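Hi support team,

I'm filing this because I wasn't sure whether my run with WT7 finished correctly. The job status page said complete, but I'd like someone to confirm that the output block is well-formed before I use it downstream. Pasting the exact inputs I used:
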Amino acid sequence: MSPQDAGHETLSNLLHEERQFDPPTDLAASANVTRATYEQAAADFEGFWAEQAKRLSWGTEPTQTLDWSGAPFAKWYADGTLNAAYNALDRHVEAGNGDRVAFFFEGEPGDTREITYAQLTDEVRQAANALLELGVKTGDRVAIYLPMIPEAVVAMLACARIGAPHTVVFGGFSADALASRITDCGVEVVITADGGYRRGSPAALKPAVDEALKSCPDVRNVLVIRRTGQETAMTEGRDLWWHEYVGKQSTEHTPETFPAEHPLYIMYTSGSTGKPKGILHTTGGYLVGTAYTHWASFDLKPETDVFWTAADIGWVTGHSYLVYAPLVNGATSIMYEGTPDTPHKGRWWEIIEKYRVTILYCAPTAIRTFMKWGSDIPDGFDLSSLRVLGSVGEPINPEAYVWYRHFIGGDETPVIDTWWQTETGMHMIAPMPGVTAGKPGAAMTPVPGVAVEVVDMDGNPVGNGEGGYLVVTKPWPAMLRTIWGDDQRYVDTYWSRYDGMYFAGDGAKKDEDGDIWLLGRVDDVMNVSGHRMSTTEIESALVSHPKVAEAAVVGAADETTGQAIVAFVILRADAGDGGPDVVKELRDHVAKEISPIAKPRQIMVVEELPKTRSGKIMRRLLRDIAENRELGDVTTLTDSSVMNLIKENLAGQP
Ligand code: WT7
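And here is everything the job wrote out:
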């Protein structure tokens, strides 16, 4: 897909968008980032990042900043040593801030917990001791499959503390998805819970682990947190209750320091092929990059702000801006377990009013949902504590931006649209709240210290007013180091398209002022409610069903979710017409194979699929159909009558 294609709808909107909002005067007057920050970063790139490393407490201070001699395999702060959990916890306690709240936890059913830095430190030490007793050694991988509960943070930091990289698998993923991740990175210990609360009722998690482990013989232990208290089968000799096993451990544990490049975690994300990529993040650079951007993009004042990332811990947003950066920065955060409409549609605003939240960070899809529910809902709450609003996960359309700023931000708060990826680990393009006059819909300019460009097919920078492909032109501290177990795929995916530049996979445009607008993916990756999904992965799930011969999946524009999954399937001859419930059967099958979030919005049963002469499915044409558009150019099709056939076929379907 060309970036012009990807941004088709967006672009025409953008051309009419001329509003611009200056930073609030008082915020600008005491802002963390000023124009001078941009100048410093531009004048001395490495010096700037050496300076940022002082945000951390090192065992051995690094004398090197960037080692790019093995490009594209980067080393940051390579001769430094540190412990991630010590940086997130102990040092704040040692500095006398042990009583500061790290998390205000709101469970979906209404239970709450206030967890101070001192308490969290103790819990993490106990969990670290438990993992050590289970034989987890430095470098061993641990899988975490949990709802949004404080123990998820404890589990992550306990792993980090002993140098065991964690891989958190989103609790909404299926047993199969969990099993493939466990196998890919060779996990031997899993941390899970009996269940979590979702839309007012307990939803079991542990059965999915039991199912997954049938195909993962190397997993020796499962630690099970009791959250819902529901009936849970425990396998003798393998499964242990967290409250018993972790609860009995000592709260003493001296953290060891590890080299800056020691692996911190692996996070799986969808690529343009069926197999998810294990994105590897390491310790020093990742913590510097996330702590710095958290402080910069949100103008964070840790002593007074109450920060809320409304994202699940199972995604990179949860890792970087709910766990690591806020804790390293000594901030106070909200953690909310459930959905925004349980038990009522004002739940988020109630939480903001209750805790006097000052910074909210969420996804445009949530904002569009709130718009649909109506502004009278947030109007019923006192949201005056808010001073900065963040957005992440997909382009924020101007309407949503303006609604967010007006109804949630009282027309005063800057809206900070942050462009980044699982791979980048940290914000890359974002307005700075005290400096940038924001434009609704634009991510604006690279964060100070980050170098991005929009280039054409040949890798030449485009001019103002032109569109192209987004690239990163200099390494950055929180960048992925590789794809777990597949260095070649790392090189091929990100560094082969253009010489010496990181290919992000997004289309972008520079406006007349040179500000950047993101236009969506240019590969076979969809973005549904800010979740990244591969068309191929869903196609594979569909063809694994005995009734399906062939499948093609496209992302179609959707008012609420940004994109929606639309599938075209050809049934096997022996499946007949598949029966009246075939669509439901296939949707449920995808949910089971991948996750309920991967369920296609629509499945269309067709006789044929449009293909190029080389046999490639022409998704662009299917997207036209899915979005009810006039068909684009069909001249490269093997048989252009296929499209008419599909259209005629579909005319008879709902
Ligand atoms: C893809 C990365 C970043 C954490 C959550 C998603 C899209 C992300 C924006 C934004 C436009 C955005 C891009 C990117 N994306 N943020 N502010 N404006 N697009 O992480 O799952 O790794 O997905 O999400 O297409 O490549 P992810």
